Amino acid sequence: MKQDIRELFKTEDEHKPLPEFHRDEFLQKLKKQNRSAQKPSLPLMKFAAILLITLSIGFLITKVLSPSVSEPTIKDQMATLESQYLKDIDNEWQKFVAIAEDDALVERFRKKLESLDQDYKEISKQYKLESNNILIIEELVNNLKTRLSILKDIQSQIKLIHQKNEQHENTI
Amino acid sequence: MSIINYDLISKCKVQDERAMMQIYDLYCQGMYTVACRYLSEEDAKDAMQDGFLKAFSNIDRYNFEFSFGAWLKRIIINTCLDRLKKKQIDFKPLDVESISKVDETSWEFNSEIKKEAILKAIEQLKPKYNIVVKLYLIEGYDHSEISEILNIPIKTSRTHLRRGKQTLQELLKALYNEARY
After folding, report:
1. Distance, in angstroms, between B93 CA and closest chain A CA?
2. Sign (positive/negative) of CA torsion A20, A24, A30, A36?
């Protein structure tokens, strides 16, 4: 007589008795697993921390180096400088006009200053395009400086002439 | 799938610990019995519990397509086999030497042979044959399932089973003859 032994295994085995306390043990394991599932895993936290540090360093670097962030301060400084110079130039101009007795001289200087002002407007257009170009800023400042120093120079020369004239008059 | 199970599993999916314990209570006995076929009792208990933990943490993947018991059993068996693999059982085939052509479908054994004797004989098989024979004969998986579980080609699964069965027949024949004379 033959039998297909596969048939034998279609019926359920007798159950193996489970070890004592297996249930408590499993409950502990389950609680542990569920706890760690709720908390983000350690590698994930590490990754998040690294990401955070990288981002903040990156932010600091861009803040220090980025032109876009420092731009307003340079522009502000430039605007203050410009208005201060223009005020001084205007003051000196008024003083010059007051002491200058030669109309031709005044006219010559007016043209000189106008031409410098024309230059200044041209450079300003470039400055609007490249407000961080230090060379352009230097040109602007030099332009203002030149105007101011021209006016001061001519005044001191006028004063010198006046003094000489006075001395001359006194000696006579 | 019973309505009770459906309800319990749905609760497990929202991390209900009490529902998980109820599932454990329902299935632990059966699953422990399965695990004991592959591992010693202590290892079997650990593998069974690990399997449950794996099942609960992947419960979202269970889609009610198969019975929960079958899904769980597959996970438990995989966990057991992972432990066996750590003990370095090589499931790769030997060179295809003289494989005598045996009718693959025939599992006809002498009818006097008892189930216990067969189980005992299975334990005497080399590990790689032992596993395939168990998966086929006891768990009822087919070759495509076995190839999936063990990550081996179907052909290898067939070869192992054929060899396992041959050896089994020889072992049982000897036993039967001894008993007779």
Report:
1. 24
2. negative
Cα of B12 vs its chain's centroid, Å: 25
CB A26 to CB B32 under 8 A?
no
Could you tell me the end-to-end alpha-carbon distance of chain B, in angstroms, rounded to an integer? 51
Tokens of A147: 């105007």
CA distances from A96 to A157, A160, A166, B168 (A): 11, 13, 19, 123
pTM of the model: 0.55
* Beta-ladder partners of A4: B108
Q: Which two tokens stand for residue B1?
A: 């799938």
Q: Do A16 and B140 touch (CB under 8 A)?
A: no
How far apart, in whole angstroms, are the C-alpha atoms of residue B111 and residue B166? Answer: 17
Give this complex's ipTM: 0.74
Phi, then psi, of A14 in degrees rounded to 5: -70, 145
* pLDDT tens-digit map of B5-55: 788 888 898 888 999 999 999 999 999 999 999 999 889 999 999 999 999
What are the distances in angstroms from CA B96 to CA A142, B136, B159?
94, 21, 9
Q: Which residue out of B106, B115, B172 would a mutagenesis test of the A interface target, given it has the greatest number of A Cβ atoms within 10 Å? A: B115
Burial of B105 (0-12, 13-18, 19+ CB in 10 A): exposed
Which residues on chain A are in Cβ contact (under 8 Å) with B118? 5, 8
Average pLDDT over residues A46-51: 80
